Amino acid sequence: MSNKNQYNVLVDMDEAGYTQPATIESDGLEFQDFSSNTGQHGSAPPPPPPPAASSTTNFFDTQESRRSGANKAIWSLDYYSQYFDVDTSQVIERCLKTLYPVGDFASDTLNNQPDLYGPFWIATTVVFAMFVCSSLAGSLAAYIADVPHQSDFRLLSYAVGVVYSYGFLCPALVWLATKYFGCQPSLLEIVNYYGYGLTVWIPVSILCVMPFDIARWVFVGVAASLTGYFLVKNLYIVISKTDAKTSRILLLAILEMQPSLANKAQLMSSRRQRKILERQQHKAAQLKQDTKTYVNQSPFRYVERNFKSRVPPPDYSKVIDLHQHPNHDRALKVDLACDLSFPLFEQNQPSRAYVLHDIPGLVLILNPFSHKGQRQLIRECLSLYTRPPNTSNLDTHYAIPDEGLWPLCEKEHRGQLDPSFVVPRKTIQEWQLETNDSEKHDPPPVESMPLLRPFELMHRMRWVTLGYQYHWPTKTYHFDKRYPMPKLVDQLTSAIAYAVDGVGHEGAWKNTYRGEDFKAEAGVVNYYQYRDALMGHVDRSELNMDAPLISISLGNSCIYVIGGTTQDTEPVPLALHSGDIVVMTKPCRKFFHGVPRIIEDTLPEYLSAPLSDTDENDDWELYSKFLKTSRININVRQVFPP
């Protein structure tokens, strides 16, 4: 006891060596004065002076900020650095909590230690996701429409303005409003509510890439509802301190901001995309209509561009479709030299064909095949002709088994392959062994080619060579690589060559190549998908250019164009359907021709549905599945003179 009759608390320290007196500053202890306030004890000492006021106003109003930032100027970086001192694991935990908003976010998750790192990082990520995903959606829409695409960086500024205004300006307005109505809110906590509440918009931005407006609105609506619920739930604790009417007004104002954000986010992935696409489509249409745009392009190339165009759609007004208009004024019916008698042909088939006034040497025979005959030919094109030693475009990069790729497709279709099975790539060592003894080397395999399932890879089949193998890099034949022509193709093309012997056009031209001299020595089977095209070219690799070139179409329809000996001649467009046969005799063998477009959804029903008069329906499902988006074209020619 002191001589002033005052009692102090004595603290027994466990560590004998510790001699520093307990103080408020060192141990955080609070001392209570038990001295008497009357009589002989004298008057009570005056209360301690209040702590010195900081020269900086603390707008964030948190206990942590008062302790660590009281002596730091608000305009200094040190003042704000304390709010970025947070672990990434904490930020991720807080992000996940906003997706399942249960409990008090401030006390349970923030632990009364809000930060600025999370809100800033999330807002920046949302900006990035919105811009990238919106640009990706725009490029996909442009690709589907087959128009050029340019990234619009105004979307980035738009996203920055929307997201940062929502994440930082809105919390400031809410803080000022609640402050005005007598609440004691923490600006930093409100910033955390808005900032972390943006987490759900990251996956929503990614999902909005899909080109379905209804789905996008659903995703955006769910995100806006979740964010609104999270904000109202946590801000109500602060707002409820005002009167009931004011609380309702503030809550309605906060909720009103959610549809605004949702609308802006949806517009970025919807209206903006449509405007960009419409602008690109309009520009493409103007360019297409302006002939000066293609002043350096040949008439042949101009026609090709018309049919390759997706937006605007092609102009089909000049197409000659003899199935729809058999009496077209640019075509003439002629008699064949003999009946088309072959097992694959329909019985009692009229022995008629068409020639064109503008294209000497071209003979068109409209589908003479029976339904079963087409199916048989398609089966062989997919299951037999694709087998080694016939060469395909896939052989360069993939190790095709000896039995071919189609048996693997059948096993995959029946579920007999392991789900992880893919067709292996060809190695450099395998390529070297194959090319050591060859005078004409094929390109080496590319190791970056994707590993695909058999049926996926089958859709990447583009050509197979028959008979004399063709060397595509030099556009010449491998005369040392000749394999037997398929018997069916040999007999079929021989029957066609006999039928067109002597066919001509009223004395203007006549096919003088005798059917008995024709011999199928080489061929190419082309496999087209919807967006594929064969650009204008001339087949000039054969030593015998007098013999006819015979072409058979199967599957979806196409536009076939044929012009003259140069691309300065405007080509004539023909619609070819499944089963049609084109014969290019000597007068037009050196004409430019090509296939600029495959017409979608034109597969005949008899190639997609089971036939009632066949026993082969069990396995036709896989063939029809492939044909749904495909066209097959068999081209046969004679290499040497007879």
From TrEMBL:
Keywords: Dioxygenase, Iron, Membrane, Metal-binding, Oxidoreductase, Transmembrane, Transmembrane helix. InterPro entries: Alkb, AlkB-like, AlkB-like_sf, Oxoglu/Fe-dep_dioxygenase_dom, Yip1_dom. One of its GO terms (cellular component) is cytoplasm. The lineage of its organism: Eukaryota, Fungi, Fungi incertae sedis, Mucoromycota, Mucoromycotina. Belongs to the YIP1 family. Its main location: membrane. Residues 32-58 are annotated as: Disordered. This is -like protein. SUPFAM superfamilies: Clavaminate synthase-like. Residues 519-640 form the Fe2OG dioxygenase domain.
